[in-house]
Amino acid sequence: LERLRTLRSEDASVVTRIADVHRQAGRQEALLRALEDEIALSPDADRLCTLEIERADILEQQMDAPGRAIAALEAARAADPGSREVLLRLERLYRDARRPREQAEILELLIEGTGAEERLDLRRTAAELYDVALGQPSSAADQLWAALCEAPSSGVDRVELLGRLSSVFLSLGRRDLWARTAEEELASLDSGAEVFDVRRSEIQLELARVYNTELGRPDAALRHLREIVDGGIAAADGQDASSFEEAERSLLSLLRAGRNDIELERRLSQRLARSAFAADPEEADGERSQPVQGQREEADLWLELARLRRERLHRPCKAADAFREVLARDPQN
After folding, report:
1. DSSP annotation string for 85-101
2. Which of 64, 144, 147, 295 is least surrounded, with the fewest CB atoms within 10 Å of its CB?
3. pLDDT digits over 11-21, tens only?
4. How many Cα atoms sit within 13 Å of 282 on the Cβ side?
């Protein structure tokens, strides 16, 4: 065959037969040279793509040369730009070689020509690359938004995508967009599933903080704080008590700032009724077991409630009851 090749140097079929012999004999380096010779002679794009794929396999698996394998696959891609097999192989090799920019480019091409279910996973991968490896959160947001538009309107996938999109908007400094996404994530959480209670309270507390301090929307902040407090997170079983207490403190603060006297009076009354420092008429004065600091805090809240009832709500009898509670905790007040 080699002698025949010298006589018919432009005949690709002779090189093909030589490659077959080396392939059957397991001679990888000789096969690689024969494939390169055939590539130089072959005018057919499909055939070129097939030969370059085989070259890439040998270079990667037999010769441990992933860089040369990538070059072979790029040549195959040039011969057949629409070959999904080539794109998938390239994406894997770029991922293994930690070349995120080239991997992202291939992922974009794969996304264009795949079905909806697989496209969702590809968009997730591309978003991760853009956000973490390439430092392009805006491109990550584009991919996640497109994935959201294609994802089912409910379910774990949607919740996960919304959570990731929220993080990207935070990194972009777009608190307004973060708030919209966080509201969507909150609506997607199953209200009957206790497993989401902690996540739900985290989102609502952060939404309340952002609405109040950064977006100038105390009304929206109040809505979320009321839901947490009225839902009684941990009030009964003691779980996640810190979230409940933080929400209640923030709610009281906003009610004070907005001079919402009627609701403030009700919320203070509820807060004090639950208190571990509530006055016990059967206890002798000064024999309370609670820490002194706690008693002072309770006295301050009772004093606020008393003044609120006397000065703004004009309820002197109720105000007198509250003043008595102050004296029960701080006789020298």
Report:
1. HHHHHHHHHHHHTT-HH
2. 64
3. 566 666 766 67
4. 0
Which residues have C-beta within 8 Å of that of residue 175, sequence separation ≥ 6? Answer: 169, 210, 214, 215
DSSP code per residue over 39-108: HHH---HHHHHHHHHHHHHIIIIIS--HHHHHHHHHHHHHH-TT-HHHHHHHHHHHHHTT-HHHHHHHHH
Whether 49 shows a pLDDT value over 50: the answer reads yes
The structure tokens listed for 274 are 């639950």
| CA separation for the pair 128, 3 (Å, rounded) | 55
Do the Cβ atoms of 179 and 207 come closer than 8 Å? yes
Q: Residues 94, 124: contact at Cβ < 8 Å?
A: no
Please name the amino acid found at residue 58.
I
Helix 292-307 to helix 316-329 angle (10° resolution) is: 160
Of 4-18, 62-76, 81-95, 298-312, minimum mean pLDDT range: 4-18
What does the pLDDT read at residue 294? 66
Rounded Cα distance between 176 and 182, Å, is 10
pLDDT band at 63 (very low <50, low <70, confident <90, very high): confident
CA distances 138 to 128, 182, 246, Å, are 12, 17, 33
Local structure of residue 284 (DSSP, 8 states)? P
Residue with token string 């933080």: 246
**Terminal C-alpha separation, the chain:** 111
pLDDT at 280 over 70: no
CA angle 148/151/154 to nearest 5° reads 100
User: What six digits make up the tokens of 72?
Assistant: 């072979």
